[in-house]
């Protein structure tokens, strides 16, 4: 008897354990569950499973009954391993025979991903040997000592190495799920999921996962209106002064508050948004590269090529070839 009931959908198995972080399980169901085609058809089927079916203890004051066992892993196109606050982490413990058996059922051509310290499970199975990976910054030192064969990068939000994906803390699990949705079905679907969840549609995997900066004062003016205006006018020249005027601030005050809120300078953010717009147009439109450059505010194809190469390491034409969605 098959676990998944919709063979036309991409099958996602979330493999949970005792001590599971409820929020991480919710992230996967919420994000993949919202992904729909232009006709409104769901694109994913998500199933929660566990090495031994039954009541699973969580990091909160309740348990969750999980009826599906490891057989779901064998059928899945994508297997996601969230963190556990009780088992196998941060270091020094072996996987239980039941969990090891469940992980051994992952098909060789399936995609496997971890959220937060779920990376320990992947590492213990040898799936991260020789691969670039990440985990929560608090566990980075222990992880590197325990698994020296892993090319750990503790300063990024998520990584992708072949069919193996890892993410840092809980919130970066959102970024990773959106990244996978985008790879599967394009920017339009991923952006719609992000809007429905009220989160940023895209944060580069290479963005720092931990930034020491103070939370802005509750009564201070926000720069949100300027950012919203900029997103509507990316095809036009935009200066720092233009943004400051939208908030009735001096350039100096705006610069300080923008960095406090966003974690980068306004011009860095603007370039990031233009690259993001270029990616979407390259994926979804037939516009020639010079028209894409103009629509994003880069002006020329050469400038777009330079910025895309710096951000992603590929040319516009190579990006389009790789990520172009079928009509």
Automatic annotation (TrEMBL):
CDD domains named among the record's database cross-references: GATase1_AraC_1
Record carries keyword Ribonucleoprotein: no
Keyword Transcription: yes
Sequence ranges assigned to domain HTH araC/xylS-type in this UniProt record: 224-322
Entry-linked Gene3D superfamilies: 3.40.50.880, Homeodomain-like (1.10.10.60)
SUPFAM superfamilies to which the protein is assigned, alphabetical: Class I glutamine amidotransferase-like, Homeodomain-like
Record SMART domains: HTH_ARAC
Keywords of this entry: Transcription, Transcription regulation
Pfam family, one: HTH_18
Name recorded for this polypeptide: GlxA family transcriptional regulator
């Amino acid at each position: 008897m098959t676990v998944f009931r919709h063979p036309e959908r991409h099958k996602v198995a979330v493999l949970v354990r005792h001590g599971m972080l409820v929020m991480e399980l919710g992230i996967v169901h919420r994000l993949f569950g919202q992904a729909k085609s232009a006709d409104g058809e769901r694109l994913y089927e998500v199933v929660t499973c566990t090495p031994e079916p039954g009541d699973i203890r969580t990091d909160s004051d309740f348990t969750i009954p999980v009826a599906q066992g490891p057989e779901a892993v064998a059928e899945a196109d994508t297997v996601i391993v969230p963190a556990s606050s009780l088992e196998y982490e941060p270091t020094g413990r072996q996987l239980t025979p039941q969990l090891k058996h469940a992980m051994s059922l992952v098909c060789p051509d399936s995609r496997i991903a971890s959220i937060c310290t779920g990376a320990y499970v992947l590492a213990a199975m040898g799936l991260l040997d020789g691969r670039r990976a990440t985990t929560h910054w608090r566990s980075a030192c222990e992880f590197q000592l325990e698994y020296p064969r892993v090319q750990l990068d503790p300063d990024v939000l998520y990584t992708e190495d072949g069919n193996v994906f890892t993410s840092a803390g809980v919130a970066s699990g959102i970024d990773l799920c959106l990244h996978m949705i985008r790879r599967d079905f394009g920017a339009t679907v991923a952006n719609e999921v992000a809007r429905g969840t009220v989160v940023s549609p895209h944060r580069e995997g290479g963005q720092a996962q931990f930034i020491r900066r103070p939370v802005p004062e509750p009564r201070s003016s926000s720069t949100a209106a300027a950012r919203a205006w900029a997103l509507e006018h990316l095809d036009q020249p935009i200066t720092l002064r233009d943004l400051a005027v939208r908030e009735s601030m001096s350039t100096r005050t705006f610069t300080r508050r923008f960095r406090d809120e966003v974690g980068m300078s306004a011009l860095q953010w603007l370039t990031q948004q233009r690259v993001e717009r270029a990616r979407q147009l390259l994926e979804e439109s037939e516009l020639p590269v010079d028209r894409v450059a103009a629509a994003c505010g880069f002006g020329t194809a050469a400038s777009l090529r330079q910025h895309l190469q710096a951000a992603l390491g590929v040319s516009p034409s190579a990006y389009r070839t790789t990520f172009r969605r079928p009509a």
